[in-house]
Amino acid sequence: MDYKRITVYQIYPQSFMDSNGDGVGDILGIVSKLDYLQYLGIDAIWICPMYKSPNKDNGYDVSDYYSFQTCYGTNENFDLLLKEAHKRNIKVIMDLVLNHTSVEHEWFLESAKSKDNPKSDWYIWKDARKDGSLPTNWGAMFGGPAWTYCKERNQYFFHTFSNFQPDLNWESESLKKELFSVAKYWIEKGVDGFRLDAINFISKDPTWSDGIIYPPQQYANIYEFAANGPKVHTFLQEFKKEVLDKYDVFTVGEASSSTIDDALEFAKDINLIFEFDHLCLDNADWPYGQKDIDIIEMKKCFEKWQKGMFGKSWNTLLWENHDQPRVVNRFRINPSYRSDGAKMLASTLYLMQGTPFIYQGQELGVDNVSFNSIDEVRDIEAFNLYHNFVDSGKLTKEEMLFRISNKSRATSRCPMLWNGNQNAGFTNGRPWCKVNENYKIINVENQIVDPDSTFNFYKKIIEIRNKYDVIFDGDFTVLDRENNDVFTYSRKDNKSEIIVISNFRDRNISYDFSNFNNFKLLLNNKKELNSSELAPYQTLVYFRNL
Ligand code: TEU
Q1: Is the CB of 323 under 6 A from ligand 1?
Q2: Looking at the chain, which terminus has fewer C-beta neighbours within 10 angstroms, N or C?
Q3: How far is the centre of ligand 1, averaged over its atoms, from the C-alpha of 480 (Å)?
């Protein structure tokens, strides 16, 4: 599949569209919105996990890889989705969680029974140390230690994420075989590819040694020991040989904290990776602290990835996903200019080299949801951190809720805003998660008919990407490295050049346009065009043939 030429739209199924009034999005809901997605111009949808799951981590804790949670529908509904999507030339990418399962998965229940059952080594088990302490001092991603005790085996099982998500042991041959069968099953059913969840965590540090603990953390950072471990590429090569090479499928692996060198290695195994360098630029104190993004730093970050991958591999272009807050909040876009800011961010990123990923609602410029009580927060990570910090008196309830609303992943997982009716048209029932209070202003129905909407700007960006080859193959040069307000870059191949100019500020900024006299203006997010300054959040795209 020509994964370099597609635009992918990410669907968070719980929150996309509810067809049966139970308050949770479902497969038939997705089917009912395929025309909308086709109109936007995307080529593929990636759907977050819908497999059977106790939902401790909203579906990323799978208890059966071969069927769906009842709330999403049946395997027949999914067949219909495949058929209807393919009819519209939309590919379907499934989320595949191969690093861990749920504790309720039958494999785990078996493995936990005894040390000599056939699945005993399908998970990672270790004894306590001689002094009775945990096997290592590593912390789990969602709080607490990375080890949980199991009475039946009198041993600890290892988990990178929560204690509901035991890690699978890729060292086990029989386990690997089973995982490969899962992938084959879905490919043969007709899916076009996979987003491989947390795939850089499948090989752990074989020394199982302790790490340094940096207060206020209580445990050592798990990334050091579980991310990009020594056998990750060996395992993925096997996956490629046994499964991926046999079919025409597309794979994008989630590989947080990867370097360029890591990315180039992953490129030998799978098509693309997600890395999150540019989405860490506003990180401040833990948990969920936020600082202003330094635009010069941001340019350096993009330059590193654009140049580092050029001619060797291929980038993913993303501002948002279900683990990230909304991008308009990340950049602290002034709400009076929300739509201008959202458009400016779109052209800044999506005219770079790579495969674009758009997260549901991003095409409308949707902003974060504000939570007033922890009962409204539907995420294990935010929930655990809230209790850790509030119960111990380290942060007030208000401060913690502000942080969660501002920077946690819970804030972007709320229902899609379809119209100005009750629950934003997402459900006739009681929505599983709070609906964004802005839904009467920001919604699909309003934006689709407004030629100046964020939606229609995204549509244009996709059209431009498909039309101008230089966006596909041109090199990347930052033209104003020292400017902390405006980001100007060029994309150039031997036939043409595109210039993207973006003002990141909510005020006019003087700008010298003299170099662009013989260019044609392709895109402007404002009605005005001043010859010596950029309007607040103005973005301009110029083109010329060489
Ligand atoms: O996320 C794994 C993961 O590493 C992210 O939390 C990552 O650290 C973050 O996005 C970087 O900013 C995946 C899923 O996307 C997430 O929703 C799951 O909770 C997690 O795996 C466990 O399956």
Answers
A1: yes
A2: C
A3: 34
User: DSSP labels for 158-190?
Assistant: E-SS-TTSPBB-TT-HHHHHHHHHHHHHHHHHT
288 lines ligand 1 (CB under 6 A): no
- Tens digits of residue pLDDT in 505-517: 999 999 999 999 9
Ramachandran angles phi, psi of 473, nearest 5°? -115, 0
Question: What is the side-by-side order of every strand in the sheet holding 155-158?
Answer: 125-126, 155-158, 147-150
Q: What is the pLDDT of residues 520-543, one digit of tens each?
A: 999 999 999 999 999 999 999 999
Tell me the pLDDT tens digit for each residue of 299-329. Answer: 999 999 999 999 999 999 999 999 999 999 9
Q: Distance between CA atoms of 460 and 444, rounded to whole angstroms?
A: 16
Confidence at 1, pLDDT banded by 50, 70, 90: confident
Mean local confidence (pLDDT), 110-137? 98
CA 458 vs. chain centroid, Å, equals 18
* CA nearest to 53, candidates 104, 118, 12, 98: 104
The question of whether 254 is a catalytic residue gets the answer: yes
Q: How many Å apart are CA 118 and CA 132, to the nearest integer?
A: 27
Residue 197 is among the residues annotated as catalytic for this protein: yes
305 lines ligand 1 (CB under 6 A): no
Which band of pLDDT confidence, cut at 50, 70 and 90, is reported for residue 216? confident
Do 11 and 466 form a contact (C-beta atoms < 8 A)? no
Q: At what angle do helices 380-391 and 397-407 cross, to 10 degrees?
A: 150
Query: Which of 50, 167, 197, when mutated, tests ligand 1's pocket best, judged by the most ligand atoms within 8 Å of its CB?
Result: 197
